[in-house]
Design goal:
Blueprint: H1 14-65, H2 84-88, H3 90-93, E1 136-139, E2 150-154, E3 176-181, E4 186-190, E5 199-202, E6 205-208, E7 223-225
Antiparallel strand pairs: 1-2, 1-7, 2-3, 3-4, 5-6
């Protein structure tokens, strides 16, 4: 006896397909915040690594001259200025660094360096163009100062232009900021949601880590040099 077998449609019905799509969308909704959180942690880790690498060059500079690069170009290298980009270019002129890679920290105003630093014959004029430094730099310091003082910090807050205050973007590194100290250690602080300051506890009160009330400054106000913003 011949038995005719009917083809069975094994495909999804429209309803089943919509259910699958809804499940995928729900899973994506749960996963996205976790992915973003991990990305912010990775950005913090990159900034921390780069700051520690820069400390090696800054320390060598201090050993050569008795101070870190400063806005007055006290080392006489021909790279004075009023931005972190200007002053940190002294590290190229002294031969302490040859690459821009470690000057990067993710911020709203910075970009990945393009690797074009120029050369000795043009005084490395292409090094650290606008946006290629992501760190706040504190001027006029040396290893002879309080070893807990901040030397580099990120991520500065920007309202569209170059940063002009020691305030920090609470979104980029997941509500935190990082500081490289003179001794080469890195410390993270939570960014205050209202003031955008990084704060520490002094005499049971919360104070801005860059305020003179913070005893690491010995009542001497820090001299900030802000990085320049990237172009369009």
């Amino acid at each position: 006896m011949n038995i005719t077998r009917k083809n069975i449609n094994k495909g999804f019905t429209l309803v089943e397909l919509l259910v699958v799509i809804a499940i995928i969308a729900a899973l994506a909704g749960f996963a996205t915040p976790l992915v973003l959180k991990q990305m912010k942690k990775a950005d913090m880790a990159t900034a921390t690594h780069n700051a520690k690498q820069l400390h090696l060059a800054l320390f060598e500079f201090d050993q050569d001259y008795g101070f870190f690069p400063d806005s007055a170009d006290s080392a006489g290298l021909g790279a004075s200025g009023n931005t972190a980009n200007d002053v940190l270019r002294q590290l190229f002129l002294n031969g302490n660094v040859t690459s821009e890679e470690n000057f990067y920290a993710k911020t709203a105003f910075s970009k990945q360096p393009d690797g074009d630093v120029g050369n000795e014959s043009n005084d490395y004029n292409n090094a650290l163009d606008n946006g290629e430094v992501g760190f706040l730099y504190i001027d006029d310091q040396s290893t002879g100062g309080n070893s807990s003082r901040p030397l580099l910090a990120a991520p500065l807050m920007s309202s569209g232009g170059a940063p002009t205050a020691m305030l920090f973007d609470k979104d980029i590194y997941g509500g935190k900021m990082m500081v490289l100290r003179i001794d080469g250690s890195v410390k993270q602080y939570r960014v205050d949601k209202t003031s955008n300051q990084a704060r520490t506890t002094v005499n049971n009160s919360q104070v801005d880590i860059f305020a003179t009330q913070n005893p690491v400054w010995d009542d001497t106000a820090p001299q900030p040099l802000y990085p320049s913003k990237k172009g369009k």
